[in-house]
Amino acid sequence: MKIDRAVMLFKMMSNPIRLKILKHLSDGGELCVSSLEEAVGSSQSSTSQHLAHLRNSGVLSCEKKGKNVCYNIADQDILNLINEFEFED
Q1: Which PANTHER family match (predicted)?
Q2: 24-43: average pLDDT
Q3: Which residues 6+ apart lie within 8 Å of 46 measured at CB?
Q4: Residue 6, CB-side half-sphere exposure with 13 Å CA sphere
C-alpha cells in the first residue's frame, strides 16, 4: 500500500463515528442506515453525513433496497485494517 493511500485510510478512521460505522460494517457485512444509526448512537443526519463521506472516498458502497439504503465496505484495505483491531464497547 502506498503512503498516500494509507494516510487517506487513517484519516477516514480518525473520526469516532466513522470508525464505529466501519467496525459495525466489518462485523455485520451489509447494514442499512437505520441499523448503523442505532449501532453508532448518532442521529440520522450525522450518520448519513459520515456515510456519504466514506462513500465519496470509495471506502463504502451502497445499494438501495426498497426504501432503505444499505452499505458495505468496498475497500479491501480498510476491511483488512479494521479486522486487525480489537475494539471494546
Answers
A1: ARSENICAL RESISTANCE OPERON REPRESSOR, TRANSCRIPTIONAL REGULATOR, ARSR FAMILY
A2: 91
A3: 17
A4: 3
Q: List Cβ neighbours of 86 (8 Å cut-off, separation of 6 or more).
A: none
pLDDT at position 8: 81
Count how many residues are written for the chain. 89
Contact 11, 26 (CB under 8 A): no
Task: Kindly state the cell numbers that stand for 55.
Answer: 462513500
Question: In the prediction, which pLDDT does 41 show?
Answer: 92
CB 12 within 8 Å of CB 78: yes
Among 88, 82, 89, CA closest to 27: 82
